[in-house]
Structures are given as structure tokens and as C-alpha cells.
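User: quick one, sequence for these C-alpha cells?
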């Protein structure tokens, strides 16, 4: 339980926990009354004030919790435990956080509480302006778009789960490949995100931004859920507490979750998609000052894929809009994780965090992007395969001190990561099982060591300056097993190393709890594939990104919160999808400028509106005008919806997402056509069960989810054709769900 105490007459420290779970609550706004000084709790639920005068009481507010006010005289008796009771979301309880870098978290918490999510990759759509697209079957990581970036499968966005990296370096299918399907969506408790390269704790791939998933520390109740719908879609989920109610009062929790999914999907060639997920997590206090989080998970997924089809194949009647030209595409993948974290709070309030993680990963994918372009007899089917072990450590120390009335928070951290990949393979195959020839084959070892420093100076909880510095050292090693690979002089071991130094500087000014202005400046980077890096002896292995954000978060009314920002980013080298042939088609320096706008509004107690508008203008720097478009870079995007939310009874939402037309190649001679898609959710909920209906693409719009400029040759064609190849988006698709809740 949280206990408030007054120390040395002028310092107030405390800890806040959830009334039901007894777990600490991060992000609670704490006011000193009547002088209205305010701060927020850290990830251990702690807060503190210094040089306190004329205090009558403390007030606590948080999204999803009932506000609470405690007289100071009760605190002085050391008799209060501060527990907050969960309640329905109220935007009136939202305050603009004075903590540096927390400007997006209010929006994130609101969206997580209100939106129905059935897939962990779909949670990414909660980031305003972030779009995803699937183009090779449901078992593969989606393509990600954010701030004018085609991030491919993760090259320019850092994704983490419980502080463990999701991105895979030097992956067989793409640099930074981030498949988060191993996360069961119902286990996600919070999601933190930030756009741009402004956080010193984040390193590789953090150019357009980062997304951190954090799983629940405890379950409020046990759940069994069944889902079924069109296209032979089925899902079964179970989530169970492994400890009794008495353990919660000792701040101990252990739960287990498992899910199984099957679908044929909406393609003419059935996917026969299978996925099994298992997750278990212990979270508890192992001493008076230390919290332990230990989790383990495993994923296995297998599927067939329809792949991408050229426009002419549909227009000429060779196949339907949802058809396939190579029915042998598909794959199998698995990932098993072990993750242990401790948070220790010292007597002076300092925090020590330690984390160890391990992943065992396999990937085997068969695709055919060009059909009969190269091999007019057997076709161009390729196989991408790898087996990987990933080890890592993260540690940090956070110290807080006061300089007069100013508060200085110093954080230092170190991070280590080692990826060892065996038999990374790119090969030419036929009918999935026949090997025609190897294109690439070898072992990859990539080790990185990082250190960072964060200094945050806060003046009277109004003005804050954050200065950070991060250093990353990379060691690349590739053992080439293929004498025919002309990228290298021959078989054998190739090594190189490189480093990157990245400064960050941010300014935050809180006029009050309803208005904040901020300026973020920073340098980040993304790494490149080790196989390419060693071949050019480290040249441009860690291309830099330089960014700037000027923005505001404000509440013009009790029930309205707005975030708006102007931003700019340059990237020294950009790699865009190139047919997975072991090379890239576009590489060079780029620059982007844009505008983001987000609004959340609650006109009535149970009614919510949300709107996100995003614009990005991006060009390559060294190419002539008209030849300098960035392929597939999003320009105009928007999402929005209306949600009716109640803890019991009927609730639901109607939402849209819009992506405008964008260039498919450097001269914009081909267009990736935009789309407007609407989804509908309706649930009936009470304390024991929930019945739900979800309809994707309510208007049955025919749309292209992913599109690429690809040179292809169909069987029997005399000459290749350069045009758009696409994967169709889902048509009207309905599914029903039934959930049972019990203690």
C-alpha cells in the first residue's frame, strides 16, 4: 500500500496504488492545495514535492480513476494509504502532464480504454497518424507508415514489449522487422509512444518514433472468450489468475493467458492461418523496496498467402481482385521469450532498474513478387529463412535532487544486445519445397553496446528542460557460406564495427494543468543489414536522422483535449522496399516536414469523439525536382470515430481511417491509390459476460491495403511490365464474440 510521509518538514513523498490490484499507478497527477503545485507519479507510483509551504490538502487525479482529496493533517499522522478506485473514463480528469516527454500519454490512455482491439499489431493504430498494411498473410509483420515514412516492417520505428525489443536486426525479410503478434492483445495494459528521435533511452530504429507495449501487471478477473465469423474465422482465448485475492493485498500477482486463432481469410486462395500464443507473468514485491516482473511467452504461426498481384492480372481477367497467381506462397514462424525486470526504490527515492531478456526465433517465408520475370520456366519464388537467438540487458539508475526549488532528475543507463542468426537464407525455390539455387546463405552475429544520460531540470513544475546524450557501438560479423555470392570476395568471415553519438534537447512549458508548449530537438539513427554493412566495410551502417518538433497540448474545455505539432526530420540514408532480392531500389538522403493534429472530446458522460489529422511533405535531397518523390511515403492521413462507452449495457463505436493517394515511385508516374474504410463495433456488457459484434469495412469498400511499384512478368508474357502490384484490403467481414468473466 502507498504511504504518504512528510520528510524534513519541507519534503512530501508518497506512493499511490490501485484499490483493487494493489499495484502502483503511473501517471497520477498530484496537486498541493491551495497553491496548486502539481506533479505526476513515476512507474513505481512514487511522487515528491520540495520546499512546501501553506499546504492544506493533496488531490489525486488520473485517467480511469476516481479523484481523491486528502487533508494534510491526516498525512502528518502517517496513517494514510493512498489507493485510487477505478471508474469510467472522464476527460475532465485528464491533466496535461508536467513530466517531460509525457505529452502523448493522456491520448494513449484514453484510446486504450475505449477501443476494441483483437490483434496486437492493430494496437499500433492507436498511435495518431500510424497506419499498417498486411501484404503477405496474417502471420507476417505488417508494413508500417508514420510521419511520411514507409517504415517497411520496422526500419524507422522502434517497437518494444515490456522493454524488450520487438525489432529484429539483419532479419531475413527486412531490416528492423517487428512482428508483435506474440503479444496477446487483451494482456496489453498500457502503450507509450513518442514521435521523432527525442528520447535518449531509445536507440536503433527510433527515427519516426517509438511504441512501447506494457502488459498488465495483474488481471482484474478471469476471462474465457470465443470468437467466430466470416471466412471460417475462429478464436479462443483464456486468461486466468494463478494466485488468490490474498496475494493481491501482498502486492503479488501471477496470471496466464493463451489464445488460438484460425482463419481462411477473404482471399480466393484460403490462408489456412493458424496461430497459438501462450503468455504468463509474475509481478510482485520481493522486498520492501524491490518489485519483480518475470514473464515468458511463446508463439507459433503457420499460413498460406495470396501475395501481391499486378493490376493487369485483374483488369485482364487472369485472376480476381482477391485472387492469387502463386498459391504456394506462405510461411511459418515462432518466437519464445523470457523477460525478467526489477525496480528498486532506494530510501531517498532513487530508482534502480535491471532487465535481462532472451528470445529464440525462427522464420521461414516463401514469396513470389515478380512471378516469371527472371526464370520464365520455374518462376521467381524465393525463400527467406533464419533461426536466431537474441540476448539482452538493460540497466538504469535515476536520481532526484533539489537545487533550491528546482528539481533535477538524472538518469544514466547501459544496454547490451547480441543477435546470433544461423543460416540466414535467401534462395530460389519452386512450389515451396523444391530448392533451385541459393542466393545468400550465412551466419550473422550483431552485438551492440549502448550508454545514455538524461538530465531533466524542472522549475516550479512549470518549465522543464531535458538534455540527453546517447552512445551506441555496433559490431557486425557475417560468415558467408556461399561462394557464388558476388557481394563478397569469397566464403569466410567478414567483420566491421561502427558507432553513433546522438544528442537530444527538449523544452517544456506548462502554463497550468491545462496548457503545455514544447520544443523537441534530437538526433537518432537506424542500423542497416549486417550483410550489406560488411560488404562496404561499414560505410553508412548507422545513418543519422535529425528531427525537430514544435507543439502544444491543451484543454480548451473540461472535456476536450488537443495535441498539435509542426515537425521536421532529415534522414541521411533511406532504404525502401526493393522486391526482397537482397538489394534495395532507393537509397539516399531525404527530408520531411509535416503537421499533426489530434483531438479527443467527451460531450456527454458516455459519448466520445476522436479525430487525428496528419500531413507530411517528403522529398529526396539529391535528386532533381520531379524525380525526388519518396516511394510509398504517406502524405495525407486521418482517423476518427464516435464511441459510446459504458461499464454495463450496450456500448460501441463507428470508426474510419483514410489514407490519401501517394507516389509509388520516384517520379510519381505510378500512384498508390488511397482508401477510406469504416469499421463498426457493438457490445453488450455486464459483470459476468459480454456479447460483441465487430464488422470490418462496413460499406464493403474495395480497397488496396498495400501497393508497390514492381516489374513483373506473368507466365507466357513476352516482355516485363512495370506497374502497381497490390494486396487487397478486407471486404465486409463480420464476427461475433462471447466472453465470460469470473473470479
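Assistant:
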Amino acid at each position: 500500500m502507498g504511504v504518504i510521509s512528510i520528510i524534513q518538514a519541507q519534503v512530501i513523498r508518497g506512493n499511490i496504488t490501485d484499490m483493487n490490484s494493489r499495484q502502483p499507478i503511473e501517471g497520477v497527477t498530484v496537486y498541493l492545495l491551495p497553491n496548486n503545485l502539481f506533479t505526476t507519479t513515476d512507474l513505481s507510483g512514487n511522487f515528491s514535492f520540495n520546499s512546501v509551504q501553506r499546504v492544506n490538502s493533496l488531490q489525486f487525479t488520473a485517467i480511469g480513476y476516481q479523484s481523491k482529496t486528502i487533508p494534510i493533517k491526516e498525512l502528518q499522522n502517517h496513517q494514510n494509504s493512498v489507493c485510487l478506485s477505478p471508474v469510467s473514463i472522464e476527460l475532465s480528469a485528464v491533466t496535461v502532464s508536467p513530466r517531460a516527454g509525457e505529452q502523448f500519454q493522456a491520448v494513449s490512455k484514453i484510446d486504450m480504454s475505449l477501443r476494441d482491439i483483437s490483434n496486437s499489431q492493430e494496437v499500433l493504430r492507436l498511435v495518431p497518424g500510424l497506419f499498417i498494411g498486411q501484404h503477405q498473410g496474417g502471420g507476417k509483420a505488417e508494413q508500417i507508415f508514420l510521419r511520411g515514412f514507409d517504415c517497411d516492417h520496422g526500419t524507422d520505428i522502434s517497437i518494444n514489449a515490456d522493454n524488450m525489443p520487438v525489432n529484429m536486426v539483419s532479419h531475413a525479410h527486412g531490416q528492423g522487422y517487428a512482428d508483435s503478434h506474440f503479444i496477446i492483445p487483451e494482456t496489453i495494459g498500457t502503450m507509450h509512444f513518442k514521435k521523432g528521435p527525442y528520447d535518449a533511452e531509445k536507440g536503433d530504429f527510433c527515427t519516426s518514433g517509438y511504441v512501447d507495449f506494457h502488459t498488465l501487471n495483474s488481471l482484474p478477473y478471469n476471462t474465457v472468450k470465443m470468437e467466430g465469423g466470416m471466412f471460417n474465422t475462429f478464436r479462443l482465448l483464456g486468461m486466468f489468475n494463478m494466485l488468490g485475492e490474498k496475494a493481491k493485498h501482498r502486492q503479488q500477482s501471477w496470471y496466464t493467458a493463451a489464445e488460438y486463432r484460425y482463419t481462411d481469410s477473404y482471399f480466393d486462395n484460403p490462408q489456412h492461418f493458424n496461430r497459438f500464443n501462450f503468455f504468463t507473468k509474475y509481478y510482485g514485491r520481493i522486498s520492501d523496496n524491490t518489485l519483480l516482473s518475470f514473464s515468458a511467452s511463446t508463439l507459433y504461426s503457420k499460413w498460406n498467402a495470396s501475395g501481391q498481384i499486378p493490376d493487369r492480372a485483374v483488369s485482364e481477367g487472369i485472376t480476381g481482385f482477391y485472387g492469387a497467381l502463386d498459391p504456394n506462397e506462405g510461411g511459418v514462424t515462432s518466437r519464445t521469450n523470457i523477460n525478467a525486470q526489477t525496480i528498486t526504490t532506494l530510501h531517498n527515492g532513487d530508482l534502480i532498474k535491471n532487465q535481462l531478456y532472451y528470445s529464440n526465433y525462427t522464420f521461414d517465408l516463401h514469396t513470389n513478387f515478380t512471378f516469371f520475370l527472371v526464370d520464365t520456366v520455374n518462376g521467381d519464388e524465393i525463400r527467406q529463412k533464419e533461426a536466431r537467438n537474441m540476448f539482452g540487458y538493460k540497466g538504469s539508475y535515476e536520481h532526484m535532487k533539489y537545487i533550491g526549488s528546482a528539481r533535477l532528475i538524472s538518469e544514466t543507463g547501459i544496454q547490451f544486445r547480441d543477435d546470433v542468426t544461423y543460416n540466414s537464407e535467401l534462395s530460389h525455390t519452386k512450389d515451396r519445397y523444391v530448392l533451385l539455387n541459393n542466393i545468400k546463405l550465412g551466419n550473422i552475429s550483431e552485438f551492440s553496446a549502448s550508454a545514455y544520460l538524461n538530465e531533466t531540470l524542472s522549475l516550479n513544475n512549470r518549465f522543464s528542460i531535458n538534455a540527453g546524450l546517447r552512445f551506441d557501438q555496433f559490431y557486425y560479423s557475417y560468415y558467408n557460406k556461399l561462394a557464388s555470392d558476388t557481394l563478397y570476395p569469397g566464403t569466410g568471415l567478414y567483420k566491421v564495427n561502427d558507432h553513433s553519438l546522438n544528442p537530444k534537447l527538449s523544452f517544456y512549458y506548462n502554463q497550468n494543468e491545462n496548457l503545455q508548449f514544447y520544443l523537441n530537438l534530437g538526433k537518432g539513427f537506424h542500423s542497416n543489414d549486417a550483410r550489406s554493412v560488411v560488404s562496404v566495410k561499414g560505410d553508412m551502417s548507422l545513418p543519422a536522422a535529425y528531427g525537430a518538433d514544435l507543439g502544444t497540448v491543451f484543454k480548451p474545455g473540461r472535456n476536450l483535449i488537443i495535441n498539435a505539432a509542426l515537425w521536421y526530420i532529415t534522414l541521411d540514408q533511406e532504404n525502401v522496399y526493393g522486391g526482397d532480392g537482397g538489394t534495395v531500389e532507393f537509397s539516399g538522403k531525404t527530408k520531411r516536414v509535416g503537421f499533426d493534429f489530434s483531438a479527443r472530446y467527451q460531450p456527454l458522460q458516455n459519448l466520445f469523439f476522436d479525430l487525428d489529422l496528419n500531413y507530411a511533405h517528403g522529398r529526396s535531397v539529391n535528386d532533381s525536382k520531379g524525380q525526388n518523390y519518396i516511394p510509398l511515403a504517406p502524405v495525407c492521413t486521418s482517423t476518427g470515430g464516435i464511441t459510446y462507452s459504458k461499464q454495463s449495457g450496450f456500448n460501441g463505436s463507428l470508426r474510419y481511417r483514410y489514407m490519401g493517394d501517394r507516389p509509388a515511385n520516384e517520379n510519381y508516374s505510378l500512384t498508390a491509390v488511397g482508401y477510406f474504410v469504416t469499421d463498426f463495433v457493438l457490445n453488450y456488457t455486464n459483470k459476468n459476460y459480454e456479447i460483441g459484434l465487430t464488422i470490418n469495412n462496413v460499406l464493403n469498400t474495395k480497397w488496396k491495403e498495400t501497393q508497390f511499384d514492381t516489374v513483373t512478368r506473368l507466365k507466357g508474357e513476352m516482355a516485363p511490365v512495370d506497374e502497381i502490384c497490390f494486396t487487397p484490403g478486407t471486404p465486409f467481414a463480420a464476427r461475433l464474440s462471447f466472453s465470460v468473466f469470473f473470479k
